[in-house]
User: What shape does this take?
Amino acid sequence: MVAFSTKLGVAIWGSNEAVFPHLGEPIMLALTSPPYPLRCARAYGNVDEQEYVDFVIRSLGPIVKNLAPEGSVVLNVSQDIFMNWSPARSTYNERLVLAITDRLGLHLMDRFVWYNASKPPGPIQWASKKRVQLNVAYEPVYWFAADPLRVNADNRRVLQPHSERHAALIARGGEQRQAVFGDRAYRINHGSFGNPTAGAIPRNVLAYGHQCADSAAHRRHARELGFTTHGAPFPHSIPSFFIRFLTEVGQLVVDHFGGTLKTALAAERLGRRWLTTENILDYIRPSAELFRDAPGFEISPGFDAVRGRA
Assistant: This one.
């Protein structure tokens, strides 16, 4: 059922398998974080690591069929999946990337590192107890494109402020030296890096914490409405970055594993149209409260009246 909607988007309480095969509209960006293949399942459930690749491919199939030629798919997954009773990491990520390119015909554009300094220490068994691993601090975010030569990416939409050092370099007209290094692979000329620009091009390492004000608000609404809180909410910062980088105002952004609906919320705030699905009531019902002030907000009367029992 339609849980709620705004002028820009629709949130559907239900399975993505029942929605996206019937969409019939070009998608510019599909951005999601599927449930991780954890051995100890979270409340929302987990697919076994051996079945995970097929699970993700099945979920992406209808979306890829509707992906615009300029469109992208962005997936946040976990690298912290280990072999049974072993400190060796699973290679499911590599198999997933190959399956997406081979079976869905998408092209791998980049492997982003989502560096999270506030990530809890782990893996406990192999880092803290057996001492054969280091604590993890990042998760991979894979970016795929339908057509690399037509992809609707523009790094000018995500420029960052220049560092004080770079700003000072620009102010003095760039480099004041001539240099050749790296066996002539690199050259610095007088005046290099001196042209004024609107900002610095980001690197493909995204340093964002997993907590955000919207996650805190979602937890508060969940408690007030009697629902169970989400165990691993997506921060607003990740979808906000990719939506700005890969889409323009008015284009369609989808998330078929909505969770706490951060992709939809970021799309709403950035003026993109959006569609999201989430089949767990405890997550999607509190999410509606985050959209109350959005233009054109409407919530289904039956959905509005639902309360949890937590």
Notes: Residues 52-65 form the longest helix (14 residues).
